[in-house]
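hey team, just a heads up i'm posting the complex here instead of the shared drive bc the drive is being weird again. everything in one block, sequence lines first with there labels, then the predicted structure for the whole assembly after. its two chains so it's a bit long, scroll down
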Amino acid sequence: MDFPVLSVIVFTPIVAGLLILLIPGDRKTEIRVTALAAAVLALILSAWVYFNYDTALGGYQLMEHHDWLPALGISYIVAVDGINAPLVLLTGVVMFTGVLISWGVDDRPREFFAFLFILASGVFGVFVAQDLFQLFFFYEIAVFPMYLLIAIWGWVQTREYAAMKLTLYLFIGSVIALVGGLAMYFEVGLNTFNMIRIAEAGQAGAFSQSFQIFWFPFVFLGFAVLGGIFPFHNWSPDGHVAAPTAVSMFHAGVLMKLGAFAALRVGIMLLPQGAEYWRWVIMGLATVNVVYGAFIAMVQTDFKYVIGFSSVSHMGLVMLGFSTLTPEGLTGAGIQMFSHGVMTALFFAVVGMVYDRAHTRQINELGGFSKKMPWVAVAFIIGGLVSMGMPGLSGFVAEFPIFMGVWRVAPIVAIIAAISIVITASYIIRIIGKVFFGPMPEAFEHHIGDVTVLDKVALVVLCVIMIAIGVYPAVMSPLVASGVESILRLFGGA
Amino acid sequence: MNFVVDNLLPLILFSPALVALVLLFLPRTEKNLLRWAAFIGSLIPLAFALALWFSFAPQQPGFQFEQKAAWYEALGSSFHLGVDGLSLTMVLLTTVLTPIAILASYSVQERVKAYMILFLLLETGMLGVFLALDLLLFFVFWEIGLVPMYFLINQWGSEKGERQLWGGLKVSARTYASFKFMIYTMAGSLGLLLAIQMIGVTSGTFDLPELFKIWPGLTSLQGVPLGIPIATVKAVAFWAFVVAFAIKVPVWPFHTWLPDAHTEAPTAGSMILAGVLLKLGAYGFLRLVLPLYPQEAHQYAGWLAFLATMAIIFGAFAAYGQDDFKRLVAYSSVNHMGFVVLGIAAAARAVGTADATIALNGAVLQMFNHGLSAAGMFFLVGVIYERAHTRNLNDFGGLFPLIPVYGGILLFTSMASLGLPGLNGFVSEFLVVRGSWPIFTLWTALSMIGLLLTGLYILKGIKKVLHGPLNEHWVGHITEIKFREIAVIAPLMVLMLWIGIWPAWILGVINDAMRMLFG
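-- predicted structure starts here --
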């Protein structure tokens, strides 16, 4: 039997998290080193998976299949295809950089890293799961630690409120999705939660069109709540802002992708006719996300809220790409999930670094940080350019095909959504100008220093990834395109 | 050697970026090392460009030195480079001006490393636009150039000046100017981006030589459910392209970013902005708009000619009205680039005729010439500003006896800008006017008003700086032009004179290219 690399990826964080709990709480260095070691292992393995996926072969690869609760048709199946392989890598990257950024967490680092790693396992688990029950299982594992992480280590002023809001939103969403999932399980009647088999049965006609049309909104919207779809995006900026830095990175970088990915995997791929029926609604909501999110981001005065709403705007592009159901749109959405994950992780890392030093996030009170921390300024500029969709960076590589896909089905939407590009540019430039280059307030002049080497490593890793994809899209596009091809086959042809 | 010849275009394109990468690893405190490394590094693309110039075969139709590599296959876009006589001229202009501008930036003291790196990246961005033969790639480089320019203005721009925004918020003038530059250009590019996407969707390719064959003759929009006639769609896409390029040129009434950006940019930034970046817009007209939209261009050429005439006349009037020396030169760019657009409009109306070819020759040569003279003028403004710390023309006066060498150079460059026969500006403006006269007689005749006023504002500048009673305040402050500064301006002057007296060396290449492209 082959080396079960996906299972190792999934369970490395949680095992490391449990090990960390065994270390005495005051031995902080050991805790951090253990965390870093686990993160590096997960990163290396996920990179290995990413680069070893054979795009020529396509389909699900590195599959592992074990019975779990055979009586209920529940099994443990993990596999990667072109869509989730980049997301696994993304999780590895965010986990690695998140640990580096959180090196300075001084308040109960043991519990912090343990919860963070449980969360990471949940995320990995959702991305590679091919069993519906297993997917829900890991989904809840991913959501729950978030509550604790925000409520305990979050921003004092809003953490209880935000943690509660986020958790309730996401649980309600997942319950609704679960209902839909169960409906599918009973409708197929094969006593299996295996999504590959459900999809096959669905293709063979197990789901009537009216069934699909009825249940699609449950499944899709239930998960899309976590993807931040309008009008259920409201939890996300609050949650982002209240969360500690590494958690915000995870949250915006990976968890929102989890929602979008699950909506795609369970909603669109299992109920394709439902997706075709509802696509215009999704497209409408996504367009609101894109444009409205950008406008709201523009008027925020809190640095972190700007980034929070920019995530809403950018995740709208992912949903927009889904709703086109075209090869370009879906490929773009796949790349956008990765690109946005890296970009927003970088953003939140930067916000955290600024906040740790200035103890304020009001844009008007900040200024001149480029002199004190030039690396951070350059990293934020690169991330900002990605956010504007500047060519030569990963954002453009992702957004351009999404827009092309939209042109194929609804040209007007492409034109409307494009407005967000200029809006994004204006708020990003404003932040760069004010926070990094404006005059530095007297009060900051003396006690603000540069970031640590570990922080710089994290920033460089994130920037290099965004530049690499932007300059040479072929490192990602064929992989995603191969995954998209198999999705489109569900719609009768690519 | 074979490697160099086979990969000449990628070498030209990426050598500035590679030099920038090398600079990244040099210590930031060694300012002189950084300056010389950047300067010598920028001579590398120039050397390659000269090699390209001499191994280019002007008579051969189509693109030469083509290179094609896989880039973004999922969208049908490839890394496709190639040159013809048009892009070759622009590549030469870019590679000549960049070392000169870097040499002019030796007076920059702050953050020399970042400055030089941005400058070299800017060069790669600009060269990419001229070399790209793939629509998506063109757009990539088109936008990339914005970023370094934004930071050059925003960070190294003039430190004086404030602008009040709506809402009473006060920002420094360079912040205002750089923001306006960025948002203006990005908003302009938005239409271009959408049009490019639509073209990509309908044609299934971004490859320019292929698009030139498919797109103009397209009779139905495959795959884009717009529900309006294709003629309308094409007309809208045409205007989307035109607006994006018109903003960059800039054509009246899209020019208002330019005086701000020019005035606030550091000297070398203005040189490149006027010298090369404005040419990107005109190049876009010639490379994309005319070949992709021949019918629409023909149909709307009258409007373009009108806008060009307005740019010529209003640009000249506005330049005459300025008291700030740099703003004066900035508005003169609007005036001079108007002739480029006039020539293009004439060619669009009567494509294929002898007059059109003459107008196009004039337009392209004018692009090159304006690159030289505007860069020279901005540099000279920068030289005096460094000494006087003011650009207000009313503060100067009678400086000729103090700085005779500078005065002579300023006179020479101004005359080139004015279009004195024997210098370069005359040749190209004459060709444009000669070519457009039979096609747009009225507009060409009206543009003569602008030509007249050109003399007026140029002479105003000279008079206020060099002649009249000496302002005693400057004695001892304004010193003679330095050797390094002469080294900056000398190559420009040589080229101006050379093209003025014997333009055939460059006009031959341009003429062959124009005949083959639009003949």
